[in-house]
Known about the structure:
Elements (H helix, E strand, L loop, with lengths): L2 E6 L5 H17 L5 E5 L7 H12 L2 E5 L6 H13 L4 E3 L7 H14 L9 E6 L5 H18 L3 E5 L7 H7 L4 E6 L5 H12 L3 E2 L7 H21 L1
Parallel strand pairs: 1-2, 1-3, 3-4, 5-6, 5-7, 7-8
Helix pairs in contact: 1-8, 4-5
Amino acid sequence: MTDLVAAAHGTADPRGIQVIHALTREIARQRPSVPVSLGFVDVDTPALPALVERVVADSNHAVIVPLLLSSGYHVTTDIQGEARRRPDQVTAADPLGPHPVLAQILADRLAESLVAGVDGVDSVVLAAAGSSDRRALLDCSSVAAELSAVIDRPVEVGYVSGAGERLPAVLARTTGRVAVATYLLAPGFFADRVAAVAARAGATASAPLGADPRLAALALHRYDVALRTATLTV
């Protein structure tokens, strides 16, 4: 069975690390026949290149599944770079987003954070980490459109870093009752920043996506698609 290497960003916040490990365990629980390991593209260890080297030495082939919500540098350079270095042994799957299931999870997190649910707000701002890569911004816009369709409310995107319009500016020009959908995987620096910015604007921010079983199922879907593609091209 081909190994699944989950590739996460990494964080210095223990809350975030706990969520990432919980999500990885959930992936393994849902597919016990697949060997699952976790590596990081930044901050934490094991570093992805060293982990991939160990995995392919043991099993010969692996699929790297980005536990990342959009395309960007870490996907195109770090993760796909591993596949380019070992084209006969390593396949890179797509990141988790965009995908309709993410909009469903975001809608649930919003409903959990609001006393009256989404019926109590007029519009939503999707708060994303941000990137200098235009593909990542387009991915976030796609998820915002999907969330809008799910909750039947306008949804705009505000970023806390990188390119794109910043979250405070989007909140400042958004009228009516506003809520913030936190489009982040786990707690940490960015999630705390989103919550603080939302509070200053008088808005409620939802919790990050967390180790939701639907995210684990999505990661396995990305694995399956990548594995089929790799098999077809052999």
